[in-house]
Amino acid sequence: MNEVNKLLKSLKENIKLTPNKKIEPYLFKAEKKKWLAGIIPSELLNQSVKDAINILVTINESGEFYKEFPDNITTPNYGDNWGRRANYVEINNRAIAEMHKNKTKNGILSSIKILPAIPPSAKSWANCIILSQIFPNIYGDGHVKLPNEENSIYGIKLNAGYSHNIIDFDISKKITPEEQFKAFNLLAYIHGLKTGFRTVISADQIKIINKNGNEEIFKWDNPEHQEMFINEHVKLVKLGFEAIFVDSAKHIGGYDMENYAGVGALPEYQQMQYILDEIRKRSGCMTLSFAGEKSTEDFNRYENLGFTTGTAFISPEDINSIKQWSHELKYKTNYAPGIEVSNDNDEGGRSYENRLFRIHNVLFGYEYPSDKLPSFMQMEDLFPLRYDTSTHHLMMSNPSYSENGSPKSHWEHLFAKDDGRQYNLEVAKLFSYAINL
Questions:
Q1: What is the tens place of the pLDDT at every residue in 34-88?
Q2: Which of 256, 254, 262 is closest to 205 using CA atoms?
Q3: Which of 51, 139, 201, 216 has the fewest C-beta atoms lying within 10 Å of its C-beta?
Q4: How far apart are CA 151 and CA 164, in angstroms?
Q5: C-alpha of 15 from chain center
Q6: Spatial contact of 17 and 4, defined as CB atoms under 8 Å apart
Q7: Residue 230 and residue 100: Cα distance in Å, rounded?
Q8: Directed axis angle between helix 107-114 and helix 177-190, to 10°?
C-alpha cells in the first residue's frame, strides 16, 4: 500500500477518492496545469486531508481521475540539473500547523492541505517547495509560545527523530513519521512539484542526542557528529526530498565572517565538499539540488563546493540586470546564482505591488526560458500574512493567533483576508503567463 493510502487509513478515512466539484470558483488553469487561486489559506487548512487529496487528484495534470491514489506517481522529471533553473518557495510548515491552545502539531498535514494552491511547475522549469522545519527545534518543540518569546526554528536537534510541530504522532503507530513525509512528497509530485527542506550548519545551533539520550553541543571536528549530520540528511532524501536549503552557506570555510550572523563554528571548505558529495552518494540521488543562503558572490567557490544555486546576488527589482546575468550564465548548467523575491529574514512591510513586481521579474528575466536563473520566495509571497507579523517573526517565534485556542481560529487570523485573496489571484496570473514558456 502506498503511503498516501496508508495516511488516509491512519486518519480513519476511506481510500476511495471522489472528484471535488466545489473548487470550480477557485480553479485556475494554464493549459494542462491547474491549481487553486484567489484563496485565503484558511479555506484549505480548515478542510480535511481527504478533501485535499481529492482536490489534488481532481486537478492533476494527466486529466485522469484516480479512484484510489496510484502507486506509480514519481517526481516531475526536469533532468539531472533541474535545480539550476527552479523556483524555490519556502513554506513555514510550523506556522501553519495546528495550534491547540498551548500545543503545536501536524504541520505536515497542513502542508498537504495547502498544496492545491501552490502553482505547479512550468513547461521549462520546476517549482520546488522548501519546508522550513523537519527536525525538532531546541527550545519548546511542540509548544505554542507568546509572540515576543523566542522559539527559533534555526536551532535543531539531530538524532532525535522529527519535530512534534510537524509530525502527527497521534497516528505514528499506524504510519511512521518517515511515511508521513513520503505521503507529502507523493502528493506534491502528483501536483507537479519538487520538494526540499531547510537545514542549518552553525554548530551552536545544533544539538546531538547521544546514545545515552543526553544532549551534546554539535562539533564539526567530531567525526561521529559529522557522520550523524550526513546520515540524518540522507534519510530524508531517501524519502523523496530533492533539495536542501543550507542556512549560512556563504560563510563555509570562514569566508566573509565579519558578516556572519549565525552562532558557532562552520564546516571547513573541503569538509563541506565531502559532506555534500556523501549525501548525494549515500542517498543515491545524484540530481539533488543544494541551495545556499547568500552563496552567490564567487560562483566557482560555491559550484566547487557542490551547490546548485544560492540566494541574493541580483536585485529583484532590476530586470535588465537579471536578463544580463541570465545571458552571461546561460552555458553554466551545474550552478547559477538565484534571485530573491524575499527571504527568511523578511520583516514585512513590503507592498503587494512591490512583491508582484519582484515575482514578475524573477519569472520573466531572460531572453529564452532555457536561460532562466533560479528564484527564491517565501510563503508570504504567495499568501500574505496578517499586518502585524512577518516571515522572520514566524521563523524566530511560534505564536498562535487563535482567539479561542482552536486551529481554525489561528488559521483564519494568520493571513490577510480580502486583500490577500485578490493578491493571491494576481500571483496566479503571473505564474500562468510563465507556465508554458
A1: 999 999 999 999 999 999 999 999 999 998 999 999 999 999 999 999 999 999 9
A2: 262
A3: 139
A4: 14
A5: 27
A6: no
A7: 34
A8: 10
Single-letter residue type at 355: R
Residue type, 101: K
Q: Which three cell numbers stand for residue 433?
A: 503567463
* pLDDT bracket for residue 212 (50, 70, 90): confident
pLDDT tens readout for residues 281-340: 999 999 999 999 999 989 999 999 999 999 988 999 999 999 999 999 999 999 999 999
Residue among 71, 83, 21, 15 nearest 289 (CA): 83
Contact 245, 130 (CB under 8 A): yes
Which amino acid is located at 380 in the chain? Answer: E
Q: What are the distances in angstroms from CA 59 to CA 62, 116, 184, 324?
A: 8, 8, 16, 37
Assign 150 to helix, strand or coil.
strand
- Which pLDDT score is estimated for 261? 86
Sign of the four-CA dihedral 8, 14, 19, 24: negative
Three-state DSSP state, 333: coil
- In angstroms, the CA 344 to CA 74 distance is 29
Interatomic CA distance for residues 218 and 232, integer angstroms: 14
Partners of residue 127 on adjacent β-strands: 87
Q: Give the angle subtended at the CA of 58 by the CAs of 53 and 60, to the nearest 5°.
A: 95
C-alpha grid cell, residue 373: 536563473
* 94-139 residue pLDDT tens: 999 999 999 999 999 999 999 999 999 999 999 999 999 999 999 8
The answer to whether the beta carbons of residues 170 and 423 sit under 8 Å apart is no
**C-alpha cell recorded at residue 340:** 530573491
Q: Is the C-alpha dihedral spanning 248, 341, 233, 92 positive or negative? A: positive
Q: Give the sign of the dihedral formed by CA 117, CA 30, CA 309, CA 290.
A: positive
Do the bridges between strand 339-340 and strand 156-158 make them parallel or antiparallel, or are there none, so unpaired? unpaired
